[in-house]
Structures are given as C-alpha cells and as structure tokens.
Amino acid sequence: MDIHIVGAGSLGLLFGSKLAQVGANVTIYTRTSSQAVELQDQGLSLITEMNLVTEKTSAVKIRVWDEIEDSYCIEENAWILLTMKQKDLTDAFARKLQHVLGETGRVCCFQNGVGHVQFLEQYLQPQQIYTAITTEAARRDEGAVVRHTGQGETRIGRMGGHAEASEHEIHLINWLQRAGFKAFMSKNIDMDVYRKLLINAVINPLTAIMRIKNGQLLETSERVQCMRWLYEETMFIYRAHNIPVEQNLWEQVNQVCRSTSANTSSMLKDILNGTESEIKWINGSLLRMADDLGIDAPVNRMVYTLVKAMHQSNT
Ligand SMILES: NC(=O)C1=CN([C@@H]2O[C@H](COP(=O)(O)OP(=O)(O)OC[C@H]3O[C@@H](n4cnc5c(N)ncnc54)[C@H](OP(=O)(O)O)[C@@H]3O)[C@@H](O)[C@H]2O)C=CC1
Ligand SMILES: CC(C)(CO)C(=O)C(=O)O
C-alpha cells in the first residue's frame, strides 16, 4: 500500500519508519532539501521506547515537498498522513495538497487542536479529510533519527461522519496495526477530538507558563485549582455548543498528568525552543468558540495571552 507522509518531524518519522519496516510503500516529504539528503544518505533510524533497538530503514522514498512538480499526483486511493504543525498549513500548502491528492486521495491529519479540518475543507472534498487523534509520543533527535518516547493509541475518523468503515479505511488501519500501532477507526472522532482538545487546553498552557513537567501539575492545590478553572470554563463552552463529551473528563485530565508525568508538554517544549506554540489552535480555538456565542472565557483568555506574551519575549 502507498502511504505518503508530509512532515518529517517527530510523528512523521515514527510512523514512516514503522510502516516501512513492515513493507508499506512509504514516501516521506521533507520541508528542506538538507533533511532529505540526510535521510537519503543515512537511512531513517528509530530508537525504540526501551532504548534497546535502533532500526535503520532505507526502504523509505524521500522527496522535498516544495520541489514536487506541478503535475505530480499520488496513486489512486492512496493516503497522505499529514504530520506538520498547524502553523505550517498555509494557503499555498493547501493548494498544492489539493492537486497532489487528486480526486481519490485521502489525507489524515494528526495535528493537535482544532481548526485545521475547517481550513482544509476550503480546498478538499470533505470525504477526503480524516482526523487522527494519537497518544503515541515521539521526538526527532536529528534529521534522520527519531525516538519513540511513549506508546499510545491512534483513533481515526471523519469529523461529523460515523458510517461503517470503508475498504480504504480498513486498509490503512490494517497497515498501522501491522506496523505495531494500536490503531482503529473511531465511531465518534468528534468526541475524541474535543476530549483531546480539553486535555491539551488544561495541561499545555499551564505547564508552559509554570515551566513544569505534566505530573508536577498535580503537586500543589494551587496548580490543581488552575487546572480546574480551565476545565470548568472549557466544559461550559462545550455545553453551550452542544458538544457531546464524557462525564468523567476531569478524572481523564488528571490521569493524563499521571501517565505522562515525566513529559515536557509540547507547548513548554516550543516555548523553551523559541518556536511558535499551538496555543492559537488549542485555547485560541476555545476563545473563538466562546466569542461565537458571546460567552466570556477569562481563564482561557488569560492563559492564551500569557503564552502569546512568552512567544514574543522569546523571538
Ligand atoms: N510528537 C508527538 O509525540 C505528537 C505530536 N502531535 C501533533 O502532531 C503534529 C506534528 O507534531 P511533531 O511531529 O511533534 O512536530 P515536528 O515539528 O517534530 O514535525 C513537523 C514537521 O513538519 C515539517 N514541515 C513544516 N512545513 C512543511 C512543509 N511545507 N512541507 C513539508 N514538511 C513541513 C517540519 O519541517 P522542519 O523540521 O524542517 O521545520 C517538521 O519536520 C503537531 O500538531 C502535534 O501537536 C500529536 C500527538 C503526539
Ligand atoms: C497529552 C500531552 C499533554 C502530553 O504531553 C500532549 O498532547 C502535549 O504535550 O501536547
């Protein structure tokens, strides 16, 4: 099966490496030609969670996204796994994605936060756009070396659509499972997306502002109080929008802090690296949802503004 991966960062290299190892026909598209050369020369190395095995695959085809010719189109019914960050989903990128996918290609979006699906709908047919919610964790160490830092699960689905899985969807899931991922089609991806959004909206800005690991959020009553304020306000916004979410989400947020206790959240990493964080698509999306209904969201607004202010002092 042909699987194309756009974004040769942490998640893209993890999925690319494991899929290629089990024989999928993988093409990875980099942003820079220097990374493409690195991958071509060295092969792609995966360091497993146990730090034990380093597997190298040269079976992956490497291309530079910006160097793709205008007439290029992927095979019929092939998949693109989109593993870039939301900030890189520009109009120019989406226009190119549209012709690379052709009429029958499908794209599966791995981004945290919300907003990207609505953005891509301006360029693609709704039935071409899938969302993946993954709790796999990866970190790119060098241009050709990726570390699998935590095993999780990957749910895939189309926002607003809960039909029986199609042949092409089953095909993708089978390959992901063969590659060792706990992957399945979600019957309710909307719920998965908003669950993850809530988890990220509580944990990410607070760990970034306080510069602490995820587990340290639970260490003092004041930190838990800040989490609770964000949680309550976000649930209020969800209820106002009739977004169905489970009842025990507070417990789930706490559980994620415990199960990823040693993690530096992606937002804290971005702040420490001086790169743009995903605040705009996490708490920023919640602010847009609140504004749409004229609801006040002072806690989300405060953390959003603080994180934005930290960006500016870093750049
Ligand atoms: N890492 C993880 O464990 C998880 C990540 N996610 C989500 O997945 C998304 C990706 O995360 P992650 O892999 O960590 O991010 P990375 O920054 O590691 O990877 C993103 C990659 O996209 C590349 N890229 C940017 N623009 C383009 C372009 N125009 N064409 C081709 N490639 C491009 C970047 O290239 P360059 O490096 O050259 O800038 C980079 O390699 C994020 O939204 C994140 O929230 C979700 C769950 C877990
Ligand atoms: C779940 C969590 C908070 C794990 O670190 C995450 O998704 C992130 O850091 O972006």
Description:
The chain has 315 residues and is an alpha/beta fold. The chain folds into two domains: 2-187, NAD(P)-binding Rossmann-like Domain (Rossmann fold), CATH 3.40.50.720; 191-314, N-(1-d-carboxylethyl)-l-norvaline Dehydrogenase, domain 2 (Orthogonal Bundle). The protein has helices at 10-21, 33-42, 91-101, 116-120, 167-178, 189-210, 221-240, 249-259, 266-273, 283-292, 298-314, and strands at 2-6, 25-30, 44-47, 54-57, 61-64, 79-82, 106-109, 129-134, 137-142, 145-150, 153-157, 182-185. The strands form two sheets. It has an eight-stranded mixed sheet. The mean pLDDT is 94. It binds NADPH dihydro-nicotinamide-adenine-dinucleotide phosphate and ketopantoate (KPL).
CATH topology of the largest domain: Rossmann fold
Low-confidence stretches: none
Fraction of residues in β-strands: 15-25%
The SSE string, one letter per element, is: EHEHEEEEHEHEEEEHEHHHHHH
Oligomeric grouping of the chains: single chain
Main β-sheet, spatial strand arrangement: 5-2-1-6-7-8-11-12
Specify Rg, calculated over alpha carbons: 19 Å
User: Fraction of residues in helices?
Assistant: 40-55%
Our measurement of the CA-to-CA distance between the termini, rounded to an integer number of angstroms, reads: 42 Å
CATH class of the largest domain: Alpha Beta
For the biggest sheet, the summary is: 8 strands, mixed
GO molecular function, one term: 2-dehydropantoate 2-reductase activity
Protein name: 2-dehydropantoate 2-reductase
Domain Ketopantoate reductase C-terminal: 188-310
Organism: Paenibacillus selenitireducens
